[in-house]
Amino acid sequence: MTPVELSRTVLCAVRRAVDEGELSVAVPARAVVTPPGPGGRGDYATNIALQLARPAGQAPLRVAEVLRPYLMGAEGVRGVEITGPGFLNISLDGSAVPDLVRRVRLDGPRYGHSDDLAGEVFAVRVPYEVRAEVLADVLARIIGAQGGRVDVSHDVGHDLGGVAGDRGATVLRPVPAPEDPAPLGLDAARWALLHPAPHDRPRITADHLVQREGNPLFRVRYAHARTRAVCRNAADLGFTAQPGPLDAADLVALLADYPRVLATAVAVAPSNRPSKLSSDPRVVPDSSAPSRLARHLVGVADATLVLLPAVLPRGEEKPSAAHRARLALAEAAGAVLAGGLSLLGIDAPDHL
User: What tens digit of pLDDT does each residue of 260-279 get?
Assistant: First the structure.
């Protein structure tokens, strides 16, 4: 179960509690599900009880107690604990890791794609500046992976200083590139513009081209190439991948969280002029989504590089169930790295 699927499970629990008359609230559009923080337990945690406490007119702990049995009865959930002021800590059953790996391998580079934004069209305005252009392109790719569409325009006749323009368009104005990134080549240039947060000044230097651990782009592409290499080597040794339980919590959590990272390409816009005619929040593209995706890929790459030395048997060692499970996880990691780089418009070579 991915965090996106678990988020839907949490919302289903809220809906059932409302239908049973135990809560009197509007069911929110989303429930935030993340790895548990300090003091948390289990595989994931959600603050949905704290979010609903005020509109429900109840204490967060009471809301959490209401929701707990509905979550306990959900498929794939092994246990639910309440911690702190009302956080719900969710433990998944033992099949969660193999099921996740199977899902990623089945979907391939399209893992994390959805139709959640089907029919949605987002208007974006950008200045004539290379970083803004690339940022808009990647936002369009990520939103397109969720079924939405982005219409980009260069409307220089209006003020581009704000976050949201008039006529409902979102204005993207990241800190401009200090110089032309074209000499870096397409892939390194895009990474240099996308990896920093939009409010940070990008570095247009040859550091993005060097093949060493200090270069995040190299680590991401190298990790992908290494996953392809271990798959070829495993085939030469005559064994195939088979998802199974294993101890690789960091990498598993990052793969599971990947759909949520893609879903953050849109966010609820703050409004200074709330309307009494509609209670629906306005959802707009989030200019930080490309940098979040790039940083997430770095995390996946680093965790993958830790796993890879244990994938293949050594010496006279025979392939075991653990080797097959690690190979399946490596394939899944490679698919996420390839899919994420594709959304950034960057090549993911099989050999590096």
Answer: 899 889 886 655 444 433 34
